[in-house]
Structures are given as structure tokens and as C-alpha cells.
Design brief:
Number of helices: 4
Strand order of the largest sheet: 1-2-3-5-4
CATH topology: Heat Shock Protein 90
CATH architecture: 2-Layer Sandwich
Number of strands: 5
Largest sheet: 5 strands, antiparallel
Bound molecules: adenosine-5'-diphosphate, magnesium ion
CATH class: Alpha Beta
Oligomer: single chain
Radius of gyration: 16 Å
Length: 154
């Protein structure tokens, strides 16, 4: 069954430990979820980069290397991929400032401060919702698929 047979919608959720060992798993899982849309190699690479950046942020900044859970929710709505990546970690006091290119609170870890800029550049839409002490949700959208979407006859 593909998402075209299933009311043009397909959804998945993943919860995993905030370990850098799971970064690769998370990006491949999201990429694999989009396979039915026949995304281009460039689109797959963009999605993987954005997921990696968001998951790394949960591990390094959200949980500061301490144990925690990361949740990813993906929805495919026709050819539009929605991704939500959530942690229940420290949260961000000033989201606008955090999203500025080159801004990092962890220069000592050799962070480039470009994670949000990459997510913004490689995806079509980026929203960050965060509450200090409660956690962070990163929402991204990207239109996928080189083939034009074909409406199915009822
Ligand atoms: N999930 C998160 N939880 C807490 N803080 C975060 C999270 N994601 C990002 N931040 C904050 O936003 C800043 C900018 O993030 P980013 O652009 O990815 O740069 P970098 O990760 O290189 O610092 C981080 O330095 C951190 O202060
Ligand atoms: Mg980052």
C-alpha cells in the first residue's frame, strides 16, 4: 500500500534515545519513509541534513548529553512532507536569537551555529516552538518528488 492508496496521507512516529548513535538511524528512517514519493537524490540529501541537524541539537543542547527521548513525527500529505522533531530538554529562551546564522551557545564544542540556517535552507519551511525547562519542537516542511502528483480517480 502506498500513500496514494491511503487517502493521499501517510503518517509515522518514532521515539528513540537521545544518543548520537541514533542520528544516522533517524535520518535514514525519515528518508526511507518518503521513498514512495520518488524524491530526487538532492531532496533526500536535504531532508537527511535537516533531520541530522535537528536531532543533534536535541542531543547536544536539549539534553546536554544526558539521557532523554527524542520523538519524530512525519506526515506525508500528497507530495508535502511534514516533520516534527521534539525533545523534552532545556528549551530555548530566545528562539529568534537562536535561529540567527552563526549563533551558538556552545562555541567550546566547536559548534558552527549554522544548524537552524541549514534546516531553513534545505527545507521549504521551518518553525521552532520552545519553552525553557520543557523542551523544543522543530517543525519543517518540504515538497517532494520529481514526478508531478497524479490525482486518483475515485
Ligand atoms: N533542541 C534544542 N534545545 C535547546 N537549545 C537548542 C536546541 N536546538 C538549538 N538550540 C539552541 O540554538 C542554538 C543554535 O542552534 P544551531 O543553529 O543548530 O547551532 P549550533 O548547534 O551549532 O549551536 C544552539 O547553540 C542552542 O543554544
Ligand atoms: Mg546545531
Amino acid at each position: 500500500m502506498n500513500n496514494r492508496e491511503y487517502g493521499n496521507r501517510n503518517e509515522m512516529e518514532l521515539t528513540f534515545d537521545a544518543l548520537s548513535a541514533n542520528e544516522g538511524f533517524a535520518r535514514v528512517a525519515v528518508a526511507a519513509f518518503t521513498a514512495d514519493l520518488n524524491p530526487t537524490l538532492e531532496e533526500i540529501s536535504d531532508v537527511k541534513t535537516a533531520v541530522s541537524e535537528a536531532v543533534t541539537n536535541c542531543i547536544i543542547h536539549g539534553y546536554e548529553g544526558k539521557p532523554g527521548k527524542i520523538q519524530i513525527r512525519c506526515v506525508l500529505e500528497r507530495d508535502l512532507l511534514h516533520i516534527e522533531i521534539e525533545d523534552k530538554g532545556t528549551g530555548i529562551a530566545d528562539v529568534e536569537k537562536a535561529m540567527e546564522p552563526l549563533f551558538t551557545t556552545r562555541p567550546e564544542l566547536d559548534r558552527s551555529g549554522m544548524g537552524f540556517s541549514f534546516m531553513e535552507a534545505f527545507m521549504d519551511d521551518l518553525e521552532v516552538e520552545s519553552t525553557p525547562g520543557e523542551g523544543t519542537i522543530v517543525r519543517m516542511k518540504k515538497k517532494l518528488g520529481c514526478e508531478p502528483f497524479i490525482e486518483q480517480e475515485e
